[in-house]
């Protein structure tokens, strides 16, 4: 790939890799703003777009962008669409294609750029299209083609440059050696020298130079060894220089079109002699002048087998017009004004197999055709024939006969008696009122019979009984009212029967007789008068004998299907695959209606008047693949919840009355890949939040034209597009919640770990501080002082308290002390005993030791005492240290450390030399009144 395209293509490859899962496992899930994706995954974008759309899914292989207003193709437009096989850009305003635009389209096979404004094709314009096989450039303004324009198109087989402004074809085939079809009609090419196209042989098979004003046709080298079709319609004029040095240069041409020729007989002879050894099919339409001479010259070519002379205004075919055409096998005089043919006109055509005289003014079958005993196909359609004679068609070889679009009124019983081998007969679009037994005895090998759009009102018993081989019978568009007489007796091989648009009445009292159609596969009864009053079972179901029927069409009944159909209406149709009962305005179906059609795969119920559908209606048809139920006034799709349609792939519910789609409904359709809800209006509030998000995000179901869904509620949003509504307030963003929850959990874990490691004792202290505060608020000022002091100590220090402190203070000095082992009330909560003891004493003596600091209850006691100290702002706390405890060891006990800096305290460990001073200081502390904080005595014994 050239370097200039690699950069942009790399972007596409990167995008492809990022979406690799989507690329490998393609689905049909597309929601586009500017395009619609059809059932066969073709993206159709026809919204008068001015630029190439950017939201086309990567998996789309076919894009139709015709009829827009795109003026330029940029190199970035197609970089994300590497899987394209077909791109249609016709009828735009494209005047420029940037070099490298198609650099990534290595799989593109068909490119259509018809009807644009392209001027000159520059080098590199189609760079990257290494697998392109078809290129359409019709109806642009192309004047020149750069020699390297098609350099990348090494596999191109079809090139259409018609209706441009090309004047020469220099080097046009130089880089496309495998081109097989070249169309260059309606340009301005006047000279066609072979050296301009190529200097070596090509693989060209078909060349179309129609409507060019050729002055010179020069072929001096054998560059077209494979050419079989040459179209020079409108190119051969008087004065043209025809130079073909060697007739072998065009020896392979078997099909030649020189319609519209305006040349002398000598000039035409010169042209036709070029193809003297190979020409088989010759077209001479729109000749008008010298037609007979041209026919004579043409029929001298020994290899000629087919001659078309349409649109020449011929009125009469004379006996000498074709006397030289002895080798013709096909003769087409269609679209002329022929009223008469001489009886011996075709006498010399001993090998004629196909004779076409359609679209003329014949009033009867010409007798001339009786002289051609080799005919296998005769087409006399679209004439003025009103009657068929008995002896006009005595041709044993005849296989195909077209008499459609004439004025036939009636048939005779033996008109087809000699057509023993006829296989295909067309009599449609006449005015036939009666068949008169024409098919009761003859044509045992007939396979196809068309009698559509006549005026048949009645069919006799066994009307077609001789047609033992008939497989396709069409009688649509007649006036048949009943089939009770057994008209299909003997048609045991019939597979396709069309009775559409008649006046058939099928009801409880009038059933059609289909008993002999054992092999019938398709039955079309559309637009008749089928009508039943109730859904009660009927004694004789109309299709009970059609066990092989695959397709049944019943839509559009004139008399309507009424409000009901019998519950056993479909009895016998065990192999039915397709059922069409749309447009009949019935409003209910019995819950057992589909019990007899368990193999049904396609169901059309649209354009009826359902207001409700029984929950179990579809339960028997679990193989259903496609369901069409549009325009039926459905108020809800909840009936699908109970249908168990696990194989349903296509659902069309256009133009109904539902406005909310519930999540369980869509989840019940596990195989759904295409959903068409076009023309519905939706409630644009939180009720449809799930559906809106599902439309945008689901990876399986393709929701057709979802960006055009409109709101019908609430009033302020009427007319707004559903997918433009912001419903974020309706949903809980689980991802955000999970993010916040996870973040908070992580932060809390870190905080707890940090706090436990560095602030464990501060937390313990804070906990007890809170408890003390609560009990302080609850019990303060509730009672008078009962004791002089509450002694707070640890059980390990109980010996010192009872042996030293209690004898000195109570026995010698007369203070009343509160000791927990002696004065706490049994049965009360400990914390209440502590609180009552502290607030019931004038002061609190804390006997502090290392064991004291680690005691839970001692901590609570000092917390409550501290709160009393701070709350009352009085000197009510006395600290007595039994041991020397360094200040740094008190750091975890922040409150104790703070108290030592602000409060009185005594040290027993330092009072060994002066014990009397220790007890005197303690007595003074107990004796002093509760001074305000900061005015206490310094009692520390040094």
Blueprint of the fold:
Blueprint: H1 3-18, H2 20-24, E1 36-37, E2 42-44, E3 62-64, E4 72-73, E5 86-88, E6 96-97, E7 110-112, E8 134-136, E9 158-160, E10 181-183, E11 191-193, H3 194-197, E12 206-208, E13 216-219, E14 229-231, E15 241-244, E16 255-257, H4 265-273, E17 281-283, H5 291-299, E18 306-308, E19 316-317, E20 330-332, E21 340-341, E22 354-356, E23 377-379, E24 400-402, E25 424-426, E26 448-450, E27 472-474, E28 496-498, E29 505-506, E30 522-524, E31 529-530, E32 551-553, E33 578-580, E34 602-604, E35 626-628, E36 650-652, H6 663-668, E37 674-676, E38 681-683, H7 689-697, E39 702-704, E40 710-713, H8 734-758, H9 760-779, E41 787-792, H10 798-812, E42 817-818, H11 820-823, H12 830-839, E43 841-848, H13 850-853, H14 856-872, E44 877-881, H15 894-902, E45 905-907, H16 915-927
Parallel strand pairs: 2-3, 3-5, 4-6, 5-7, 7-8, 8-9, 9-10, 10-12, 11-13, 12-14, 13-15, 14-16, 16-17, 17-18, 18-20, 19-21, 20-22, 22-23, 23-24, 24-25, 25-26, 26-27, 27-28, 28-30, 29-31, 30-32, 32-33, 33-34, 34-35, 35-36, 36-37, 37-39, 38-40, 41-42, 41-43, 43-44, 44-45
Antiparallel strand pairs: 1-2
Helix pairs in contact: 4-5, 9-12, 9-14, 12-14
Describe, in plain words, how this protein is organized in 3D.
The protein is built from 16 helices and 45 strands. The chain has a 29-stranded mixed beta sheet, with no helix packed on it. A five-stranded parallel beta sheet has the order 42-41-43-44-45, sandwiched between helices. Helix 5 links the parallel strand 17 and strand 18 (306-308). Helix 4 runs parallel beside helix 5 (291-299), helix 9 crosses helix 14 and helix 12 (830-839) runs parallel beside helix 14 (856-872). Among the domains are: 1-187, Alpha-Beta Horseshoe (Leucine-rich repeat, LRR (right-handed beta-alpha superhelix)), CATH 3.80.10.10; 758-927, 3-Layer(aba) Sandwich (Rossmann fold). Helices cover 19% and strands 15% of the residues. With 942 residues, it is of the alpha/beta class. The chain crosses the membrane at residues 12-32, 758-775.
